[in-house]
Recover the amino acids of this structure.
């Protein structure tokens, strides 16, 4: 099957750029709707953080450490590196008797404008707490203390990553063809888009067993603490707020987006082939409207999809549009 | 004809993202090599600034104002907004008896890191001199003084823009289907990729007439002043320096790139369908190596194409590759 045309950029009444990709919507029995090729293998990147957090809960590590729901949301986050995120990770580490150098995620400048400006103008370097994945890594370190593993917890053969891989393959129902090293240095296992979509449907239809309970706790943590999952100005936070905590959504690098719709019993996954964030944000917005969980008149829809593109003088230059047939 | 697969992003031995597009290489007689569909209509955006500058010279306005070669390079630039650029535009305007408010390009934060930091940390707003197109607009204002037009020189019906459109259609050999408003508020006329490629071949094979002389002056200005055409750290500047002033290259928004190769008598144009700069920079680098004007061992090739992708801890995560068949 072919890649589907999903999002177009128009200027002056002419098509200027085009984003292709794959989208799949699943319920507990399998695929219910798709565009493009759901059998395509992708790297879920940060979109699978709620799957990577399953062993943290299922092992008993989260409860042994007394993690709050807010901390569980942070374990699933790609955050802005704002003060609310860095302080939460720092205090989490301190309860484990650990500090910033125990992280293995590396440092990058935070996306949060206040914190970015503070560092820039005081000539300060960012630290690993600012890394958008530092919450996930605090989760890894919490699991690691429980498993009594060594300090190099991002090594694919480390007990933490073996547990993550096992959960990932069980939930996707696939044997992963392999991993890539993610931006935060953790292994990221690939799967089919359909496998990722079915996983999200599993989170939307959790059983009463240990796994189902862990899935429900993580979904609830994400949709109840949208500010911890990303941050001010970010699509995940804005969209989850716009849907009133009904739905959990999560982005991943290279234009992946997933969603968990517990009330509808649906999960979805999408990947823009070229990796463009503007297109994954527009596509997830269109899909959420299509699925009836996001009001088409919500300001978030204007922001990510239907709003006119404007230039530096505020003149309208063009617009994003969904390509013909997406959504139907 | 279909869009061609051009640039791939690999991670952990698996294809993660893919950029498609169109590429055409022309000599004075027409297309000599192509990937994808050269008949596709595109917006050249800033890649056609040397065409937009033709009336500036051909009208006699440039010489009447005593413009230097460095200023002609700036008229063709998408610059960083560094001090060397903003000061050059400011002094240019002052020789016309004009000031920053006479520009109609709008303001945005400069890409130059020193100037960006200075503005950010002094809580200062950028001005129109920082706009990457302010040199082109200084050229428009120079032509406008010569033509005795009104102050709204970006209006499509203004004498300046009518002259630009006429030159653009003559050089492309096409009647444009229409314009879009560019980021800098000037009209940007669309053409086929082949039309853009043939135009670059015309610049590479200039006649001895008025137009040919203007083309030669603009090509020479660009390749002799690469720091004015973009700035430190930018692909146009780095690639032109790497080729020792032999070739002029110019990027445009939404992933357009053109090149003028006078010694080979060739011109080229490319457009990445999805608008991704990382892919247009990788593709132009591959094409320049293919055309024999850029050494495959040059650091610029490592920077834009063959270098390993690394994460925040410096670990190798993947690589860019040209797709099979590009270049042949």
């Amino acid at each position: 099957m072919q890649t589907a045309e999903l999002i177009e950029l128009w200027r002056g009444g002419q098509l200027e750029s085009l984003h292709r990709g794959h989208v799949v919507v699943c319920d507990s029995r399998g695929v219910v709707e798709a565009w493009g090729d759901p059998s395509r293998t992708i790297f879920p990147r940060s979109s699978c953080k709620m799957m990577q957090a399953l062993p943290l809960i299922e092992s008993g590590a989260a409860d042994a450490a007394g993690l709050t729901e807010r901390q569980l949301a942070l374990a699933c986050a790609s955050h802005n590196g704002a003060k609310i995120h860095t302080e939460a990770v720092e205090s989490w580490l301190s309860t484990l008797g650990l500090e910033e150098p125990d992280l293995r995620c590396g440092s990058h400048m935070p996306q949060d404008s206040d914190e970015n400006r503070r560092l820039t103008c005081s000539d300060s370097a960012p630290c690993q707490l600012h890394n958008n994945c530092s919450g996930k890594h605090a989760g890894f370190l919490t699991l690691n203390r429980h498993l009594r593993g060594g300090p190099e917890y991002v090594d694919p053969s480390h007990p933490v990553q073996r547990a993550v891989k096992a959960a990932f393959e069980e939930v996707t129902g696939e044997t992963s063809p392999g991993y890539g090293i993610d931006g935060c240095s953790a292994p990221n296992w690939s799967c089919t888009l359909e496998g990722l979509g079915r996983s999200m449907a599993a989170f939307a239809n959790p059983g009463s067993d240990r796994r189902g309970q862990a899935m429900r706790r993580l979904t609830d943590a994400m949709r109840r603490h949208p500010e911890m999952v990303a941050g001010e100005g970010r699509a995940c936070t804005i969209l989850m707020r716009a849907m009133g905590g009904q739905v959990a959504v999560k982005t991943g690098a290279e234009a992946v987006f997933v969603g968990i719709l517990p009330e509808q019993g649906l999960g979805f996954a999408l990947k823009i082939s070229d990796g463009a964030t503007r297109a994954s944000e527009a596509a997830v917005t269109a899909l959420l409207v299509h699925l009836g969980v996001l009001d088409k008149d919500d300001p978030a829809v204007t922001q990510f999809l239907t709003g006119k593109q404007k230039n530096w003088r505020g003149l309208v230059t063009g617009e994003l549009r969904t390509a013909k047939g997406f959504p139907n």
